[in-house]
Amino acid sequence: MCNSFNKKFIDEAAKAMANDEDYDDVNHVHFMSEAIKSAIKGMNNNEGGPFGCVIVKNGEIVGRGNNKVTSTNDPTAHAEITAIRDACKNLNTFQLEGCIIYTSCEPCPMCLGAIYWARPEKVFFGSNKNDAANIGFDDAFIYKELPLDMDKRSIPFEQIGRKNALKAFQLWQDKENKTNY
Ligand SMILES: [Zn+2]
Predict the structure, then answer these.
(1) From the CA of 35, how far away is ligand 1's center (Å)?
(2) Strand, coil or helix: what is 64?
(3) Over 60: is that where the pLDDT of 4 sits?
(4) 3-class DSSP state of 4
(5) How many angstroms does the Cα of residue 4 sit away from the middle of ligand 1?
(6) Average pLDDT over residues 33-48
């Protein structure tokens, strides 16, 4: 009797906390531990590197991801990307408005870009990019490439066919039935 009352009380408190806009620190720790669990589980299943991510909306996990680069032959299958895809599929939207991303490691430049496109409310990260570099996952070179002139980058970028390419833009501008984003 006493136990079931306590359980009910705890469940209700957890629910109230989940609905509160100012999440308690405990929730952040809980969701971060879920991201880390995904990292370890994916790694143990030989899906990819030790990175995990969960996406939370209104106190509930709406998307999960872990690194799957080597198992899916997909260099873009980072934890944040796979979690964003999962959350967007589950929420049936291309924008993560009101969502919080918990990622086990500081996002790389690719994931940083993807996060900006997805437009979540906030990002929490566990380990940082220096920690990742220490175990062989160094993304510092990408940050160094960004401000370089195109012809100075390790992968050369060159512009061709601008006039033809602009036709697609003109068609988009003139298109009436389009979904803006
Ligand atoms: Zn990444």
Answers:
(1) 14
(2) strand
(3) no
(4) helix
(5) 44
(6) 98
Res 11 pLDDT > 80: no
Specify which residues 123 forms β-bridges with: 101
Which amino acid is residue 170, in one-letter code?
Q
Exposure of 146 in the CB half-sphere (CA atoms within 13 A): 10
Which residue's entry shows tokens 């957890």? 14
CA of 45 to the centre of ligand 1 (A): 19
Distance (Å, whole) CA 174 – CA 166: 12
Residue from 80, 106, 145, 176 carrying the catalytic annotation = 80
DSSP codes of every residue in 93-130: -S--TTEEEEEEEPPPHHHHHHHHHH--SEEEEEE-HH
Which of 17-21, 82-86, 141-145, 167-171 has the weakest average pLDDT?
A: 17-21
Centre of ligand 1 to C-alpha 175, Å, is 34
Question: Residue 25 gets which letter from DSSP?
Answer: H
Question: pTM value?
Answer: 0.84
| Separation of CA 150 and ligand 1 centre (Å) | 22
Is 80 an annotated catalytic residue?
A: yes
